Amino acid sequence: MNAPVPPTEPRLTSLSHGGGCGCKIAPGVLSEILKGTAAMPVPKELLVGIETADDAAVYRLNDTQALIATTDFFMPIVDDPHDFGRIAATNAISDVYAMGGRPIMALALVAMPINVLSTQTIGRILEGGASVCRAAGIPIAGGHTIDSVEAIYGLVALGLVHPDHVKRNADAQPGDVLVLGKPLGVGVMSAALKKGALGEAGYAQMIATTTRLNTPGPDLAALPGVHALTDVTGFGLAGHALELARGARCEVRLDWSAVPLMDGVRTLASQGFVTGASGRNWAGYGADVQLPAGFADEDRALLTDPQTSGGLLVSCAPEALDAVLAVFGQHGFAQAAVVGRIAAAADKPLLRVD
Fold first, then answer.
1. Which of 91, 125, 127, 90 is nearest to 15 (CA)?
2. Which of 21, 23, 133, 316 is catalytic?
3. What residues pair up with 59 in beta bridges, in sequence order?
4. Are strands 351-353 and 251-254 parallel, antiparallel or unpaired?
5. How many other CB atoms sit within 10 Å of the CB of residue 327?
6. Alpha-carbon distance 154 to 87, whole Å?
7. What is the phi/psi pair of residue 66, to 5°?
8. Tens digits of per-residue pLDDT, 268-321?
9. What is the pTM of this model?
């Protein structure tokens, strides 16, 4: 369970109106905010910008190197300061891996209520983030701090990738199979944690998945037959599958029975432990999703459940599937599973759940 909080300090999760990637602005609202920015002129060296809602920006440096730049930060999803720092850093670095790159350094983004939290607690958050960067083999080379009403921590993460190995979320092809690297359920577990209903085993499971770096990314990107790559975060599996569908102008067909779930999360969801972000996600994109008759409310909640530091979602040719699963296995992702396929374009729905 969470480490005890000093009696003079509040629980970290009590300081945030939403934790982890559940803090994301709802998909429909975000689209409205960004609708005018895609018209800006961009240099030819910018290989990936904001046009496909991808995981990071990619800028070609030369014939063999491109720079990946991304940032991610959020409010506490757990009460233990060290665990919060670890989760936030793992989540931020994941976007480098999701583009097929290797991280090279990070900058820390720190906003803390300094009159509420002790310097010791804030230091533990930063040390948690630093421990993940050490595991990834990169330094925290700088950053920025401000005094804030809510506790916020994250990273700017930079990486390198060969231009030929850049994997966008928009290049899936009809006939591809989809592989998901981590099980779903982080948002449901975080909701249970905030209400004191998550046991020690559940908490350990949640920390294990949210602090596992998505290191298979570069090896997956180098495989022939891997066409698209993204990670599943705040918009849930449905939201990020829809990004694949929209980018490639295809239809995603999801086999819900094959989707890996964290132990116990379906029961928790059926008991009402669901984040507000799950409902906002469905309101934002539900019109593009077709569910089977009798699809349970708890399953829909998990389909839209915001994942913090979620798994990689790979779209690959069938003949590359064995190699993709082998890479996941070599990196310790034993629960990676085939969860669906890409079909030819259809008007609606963009995502069909079977």
1. 125
2. 21
3. 46, 67
4. parallel
5. 25
6. 9
7. -130, 145
8. 999 999 999 999 999 999 999 999 999 999 999 999 999 999 999 999 999 999
9. 0.90
Contact 203, 2 (CB under 8 A): yes
Sequence-separated (6 or more) residues with CB below 8 Å from residue 245: 172, 251, 252, 288, 342, 350, 351
250 is catalytic: no
What span, in angstroms and rounded, lies between the C-alpha atoms of 305 and 281?
8
3-state SS track over the chain:
CCCCCCCCCCCHHHHCCCCHHHHCCCHHHHHHHHCCHHHCCCCCCEEECCCCCCCCEEEECCCCCEEEEEEEEECCCCCCHHHHHHHHHHHHHHHHHHCCCEEEEEEEEEEECCCCCCHHHHHHHHHHHHHHHHHHCCCEEEEEEEECCCCEEEEEEEEEECHHHCCCCCCCCCCCEEEECCCECHHHHHHHHHCCCCCHHHHHHHHHHHCCCCCHHHHHHCCCCEEEEEECCCCHHHHHHHHHHHHHCCEEEECHHHCCECCCHHHHHHCCCCCHHHHHHHHHHHHHEECCCCCCHHHHHHHCCCCCCCCEEEEECHHHHHHHHHHHHHCCCCCCEEEEEEECCCCCCCEEEC
What are the residues whose beta carbons fall under 8 Å from the beta carbon of 146, sequence distance 6 or more?
Answer: 110, 111
Q: How confident is the model at residue 265 (pLDDT cuts 50, 70, 90)?
A: very high
